[in-house]
Amino acid sequence: MPKLYNLDRSGNCYKVRLLSALLGVPLQIEDIDFLGGEHKRSPLIDLNPFGEIPVFVDGDVVLRDSQTILAYIARKWGGEQWLPIDPQGLASVMSWLAVAENEIARGPADARVHDQFGAKLDAGLARQKAARVLGLMNAHLANRQWLALDRPTIADIACMPYVALSNEGGISLEPYPSVCNWLDRVMALPGAIPVPRLASAHAA
Q: What residues pair up with 61 in beta bridges, in sequence order?
């Protein structure tokens, strides 16, 4: 059984749990003491010298970075449904994985880390970046149901958590109705598990 070194309030760990739940992949979850720095000590630092979570172990395979883990799970257990192999479809999905790693991470995710965990970063700049990416996503989703293709893919799973938790960074999703509808579609997928604190995710 694959093992996930996990932190419940981490959106990146949640991505892995969500896709695994959607595909019916059982996980051995090991919660770590993040505030105590467990991820910076052995054995975790030996598995991931970058000292970050999630860490995913499947037999002899050890993976870090949530987008990489999503790609592995999708290809091993989900086939082309979640990660296509045709060049155009693959490129479309990959482009949104890049958005998750960049615009979303430096926007709503950074604002949340500042407000919830006291990270020393420019929260105002993070909120400006959040407004930009949420506006782009809202326009993109105005006439489509999913980010990359005509079905859910790991693009949606990668981008969803920190957008859903925007309110924890002082960002309201009220101006972005298409984004809110997309979040509802993701959460309505069979097998979907709740985002921590998602009950308040659409609040101002």
A: 58
Predicted TM-score (pTM) of the model is: 0.93
Lowest mean pLDDT among 34-48, 139-153, 177-191: 34-48
Beta strands 3-6; 28-31: pairing state:
parallel
pLDDT reading at 136 higher than 80: yes
The tens digit of pLDDT for each residue in 68-93 reads 999 999 999 998 999 999 999 999 99
- Strands (E) in the chain, as ranges, are 3-6, 28-31, 55-58, 61-64
Indicate the DSSP class of residue 30: E
CA torsion, ordered 68, 105, 32, 170, to nearest 10 deg: -150
> Of how many residues is the chain composed?
204
Provide the 3-class DSSP secondary structure of residue 28.
strand
Q: 9 forms bridges with which residues in the sheet?
A: none
Going by C-beta distance under 8 Å and a sequence separation of 6 or more, which residues neighbour residue 79?
none
Contact of 161 with 11, CB cutoff 8 Å = yes
Maximum distance among all alpha carbons in the chain?
Answer: 48
Contact in structure between 169 and 115 (CB atoms under 8 Å):
yes
Q: Report all structural domains of the chain as residue ranges with CATH numbers, in order of start.
A: 3-81 (3.40.30.10), 87-195 (1.20.1050.10)
